[in-house]
Amino acid sequence: MIGRIDTPRLIRQILAWPWLWPLVRLALVSAYLIGGVAKLSDFAGAVAEQERFGLNPGWLWATLAIVIELGGSLLVVANRLVWVGAGGLGVLTFVAMLTANAFWLSTGHEQFVAMNAFFEHLGLIAGLVVASIYAEATASRRNHVS
């Protein structure tokens, strides 16, 4: 049996740093923020991207992607209704996994690249779930202390 290993003091101090949670939330959604702004600044390109993955009408899917990427990200960063923002981003990411990273439809190196991207996106969805759990747990603790 392996003995319990305590978290080193330095790591505990870093994890207790008050700005860590806001920075982690920002880092978690940074790709969505950048993607949403990029799609907004080149809407025609965003429409073409959606249509390339078979999401039609492209203008509707591009609009949904922009609203979810920017709106969901802002909710997560603001630490308000994190489950709504993270949930929307998670669903959007799942759709992207099934359309843009369908590794089961390819072979060779292309399959390898798509499979890596697929599971990276799955990890991102898991991170969004963890952020929702943590946000809810800390909100519940604050409400019980008040």
Automatic annotation (TrEMBL):
Ranges annotated as spanning the membrane: 20-38, 58-77, 84-105, 117-135
Membrane topology per record: Multi-pass membrane protein
Subcellular location: Membrane
Swiss-Prot/TrEMBL keywords: Membrane, Transmembrane, Transmembrane helix
Primary localisation category: membrane
Protein name: Uncharacterized membrane protein YphA, DoxX/SURF4 family
Organism of origin: Bradyrhizobium lablabi
Presence of keyword DNA damage: no
InterPro entries: DoxX
Pfam families: DoxX (PF07681)
Gene Ontology CC terms, in alphabetical order: membrane
